[in-house]
């Protein structure tokens, strides 16, 4: 069975990767909280780390 929390994290990470900033992603979660599980603090931290990694990678290119 799919873990909806994991799916949500992956979706958010993908959105960050596609160029959405973290606040935009969180706003997306807030707007859709009826349908999507809110990210946990741990997930938000993971997304921040992911965003920083992507930003560094993009900066190098």
Structure description:
- The protein is mostly helical and 61 residues long.
- The protein has one domain (4-60).
- It is 72% helix and 0% strand.
- It has helices at 4-17, 22-31, 41-60.
- Helix 1 runs parallel beside helix 3 (41-60).
- The mean pLDDT is 70.
Proportion of beta-strand residues:
under 5%
SS element count, helices = 3
- Protein structure class: mainly alpha
Mean pLDDT across residues: 70
Order of helices and strands: HHH
Number of strands: 0
- Shape designation: globular
Biggest sheet character:
none
- Helix fraction by DSSP (H/I, runs of at least 4): over 70%
Rg over CA atoms:
12 Å
Q: Uncertain segments of ≥5 residues (pLDDT<50)?
A: none
Oligomerization state of this entry? single chain
What is the domain total for the residues?
A: 1
N→C terminal distance = 38 Å
Secondary-structure map:
Blueprint: H1 4-17, H2 22-31, H3 41-60
Helix pairs in contact: 1-3
């Amino acid at each position: 069975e799919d873990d909806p929390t994991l799916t949500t994290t992956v979706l958010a990470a993908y959105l960050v990767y596609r160029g959405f900033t973290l606040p935009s992603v969180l706003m997306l979660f807030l707007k859709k909280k009826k349908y999507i599980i809110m990210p946990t603090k741990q997930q938000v931290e993971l997304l921040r780390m992911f965003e920083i990694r992507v930003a560094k990678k993009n900066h190098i290119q």
